[in-house]
Design brief:
By secondary structure, this protein is an alpha/beta fold. The chain has 14 helices and 13 strands. The chain folds into two domains: 236 residues, Aspartate Aminotransferase, domain 2, CATH 3.40.640.10; 96 residues, Aspartate Aminotransferase, domain 1. Helix 7 links the parallel strand 5 and strand 6. The protein starts with a strand and ends with a helix.
């Protein structure tokens, strides 16, 4: 059975153009700086984010860890969102690998951190306290519905960070989704950031890899951090070649994924038993809950959807019965219609 896989945009497979580019990629030893395809990818990524330099890394998590290692010293503190990937989904990397403390704050419904709370959380040089060193934001904000965070907020956050001597890091795993949704450039969104990561392996459909961007000295420190994290991949131009295709041909088409997500949201909102406001769907993620009167368990619903060839992600939470469906380049309009029909059938029988 061919599944309609809505679990994540990480399930995307490389396009034929990517496979051809990978097969033909010119490579060298990247640790020596001699892989021309990696060097080209880093130059293109730096240009697209408006930064001076970039570093190809194995994953978004590796990029975030390398950024925190490059920005902080042991005993420092990082302000981040309670729902952020940096805090929730990276195995406590701030403490485990960087020796720094996370100070999570609750996000607003629009995915932003209230800047007055951020300002109030900043700690100075009192010897009893960790010194706040980094403000980490996420764009798009995954757990808040995949919402894009706008230019004005990012500028205000950057101004606040600079005023207090903090570094601003942006986990932009889906940065280009945010840029397309807001009709601005990625560089505009992160103009005030000291560093930014973005993933090639999600909506951009490359098979692996992320890029960390910042100034030259920051990237030099991050490159050293990448080495100790096991990220020196040698002839990694084979992967970087797919990343170049992703950046050159897969960004603008993200608008199609957003349209399919809205199609999915509108359809699911009409299904009895589903709780969903299509108006909050802004990119390629659709979060929905079930009414209390739905008798089936979440596991039963997912199993029955699988029988109908549909895969979705379940959000383990003690307070909701939440699901996530993510559109991507291999999801078409007919597939969306079939997914809606499958859930409608499952909930009605």
């Amino acid at each position: 059975m061919e599944f309609i896989d809505l679990r994540s945009d990480t399930v995307t497979k490389p396009t034929p153009e990517m496979r051809a580019a990978m097969a033909a990629a010119e490579v060298g030893d990247d640790v020596y700086g001699e892989d021309p395809t990696v060097n080209e990818l880093e130059a293109v990524a730096a240009h697209m984010t408006g930064k001076a330099a970039a570093l190809f890394v194995a994953s978004g998590t590796m990029g975030n860890v390398a950024a925190m290692m490059a920005h902080t010293q042991r005993g420092a503190e990082v302000i981040c969102g309670y729902q952020s990937h940096v805090f929730r989904n990276e195995q406590g990397q701030l403490a485990q690998l960087c020796g720094v403390q996370a100070h999570p704050l609750p996000e607003l419904a629009n995915g932003t951190l209230p800047l007055d709370l951020v300002a109030g959380a900043i700690q100075g040089d009192d010897q009893h306290h960790p010194i706040t060193s980094v403000l980490a934001l996420e764009n798009t904000q995954n757990m808040c519905g995949g919402l894009p965070v706008g230019v004005d907020y990012m500028r205000a956050a950057g101004s606040l960070a600079r005023a207090h001597g903090l570094k601003l890091h942006v986990d932009g795993a889906r940065l280009f989704n945010a840029a397309v949704a807001l009709n601005v450039s990625a560089a505009q969104l992160v103009a005030d950031a000291d560093s930014v990561t973005f993933c090639l392996s999600k909506g951009l459909a490359a098979p692996a890899g992320s890029v960390l961007c910042g100034d030259v000295e920051f990237i030099k420190r991050a490159r050293r951090a990448r080495k100790v994290l096991g990220g020196a991949m040698r002839q990694s131009g084979i992967l970087a070649a797919a990343g170049l295709v992703a950046l050159r041909s897969m960004v603008e088409r993200l608008a199609d994924d957003h349209a399919h997500a809205q199609q999915l949201a509108q359809g699911l909102a009409r299904v009895a038993g589903v709780k969903l406001d299509p108006g909050v769907v802004a990119t390629n993620m659709v979060y929905f809950d079930l009414d209390a009167q739905v008798a089936q368990t979440d596991a039963q619903i997912m199993a029955r959807l699988r029988e109908h060839g549909v895969l979705v992600d379940f959000l383990y939470s003690p307070v909701s019965r939440g699901f996530r469906a993510v559109t991507h380049c291999w999801i078409t309009e007919p597939m969306v219609d079939r997914a809606i029909e499958a859930l409608q059938h499952v909930l009605a029988t």
